UniProtKB/TrEMBL annotation:
One of its GO terms (molecular function) is corrinoid adenosyltransferase activity. It comes from Chloroflexus islandicus. GO terms for biological process: cobalamin biosynthetic process. It comes from the Bacteria. Belongs to the Cob(I)alamin adenosyltransferase family. This is Corrinoid adenosyltransferase. The lineage of its organism: Bacteria, Bacillati, Chloroflexota, Chloroflexia, Chloroflexales. InterPro entries: CblAdoTrfase-like, CblAdoTrfase-like_sf, PduO-typ. Residues 3-165 form the Cobalamin adenosyltransferase-like domain. Its EC number is 2.5.1.17.
Amino acid sequence: MKIYTRTGDNGETALFGGPRVRKDVLRVEAYGTADECNSAIGVVRAAGVDPALDAALAVVQNQLFVVGSDLAAPEESPYIPRVTAEMTAFLEAQIDAMEAELAPLKQFILPGGTAAAAYLHLARTICRRAERVVVSLAAEEAINPEIVPYLNRLSDFLFVAARVANARAGVADVPWQKP
């Protein structure tokens, strides 16, 4: 099977189940941005993080694949996994465990510190964009109501993970300096 099909050469793509849509519709933008976030997390993992954080990020990457497939399949299907409240609960448990290692945040921080932390902040901002696109999509079309809370919590997870990556590496967060 060839990787190219030429079916998208006219600016359309197929959603799961067959309907063709323009590549610039919100639904495609939403799952594409979730995929972009997933790729950024792949960069984090390739940059190197401790094994516990790497394991959590591996789960998140698989969950983000579920987000993308959920968004790419507007019709109910027994073949497509859907975002669940349990996925959001996983993120909350991870956040709680990581925050227990950290000193309370007393000021705003800038993305930076270690390379892994900087990449985690990049993934967080991509996640926030995905959330904004999904909110816009939800205003126009029916979507799984579990997706927005999941993305909201994921951005929190990525923020805390960036702080933990710095802390575990013995590197301080970069404080924002008011002008």
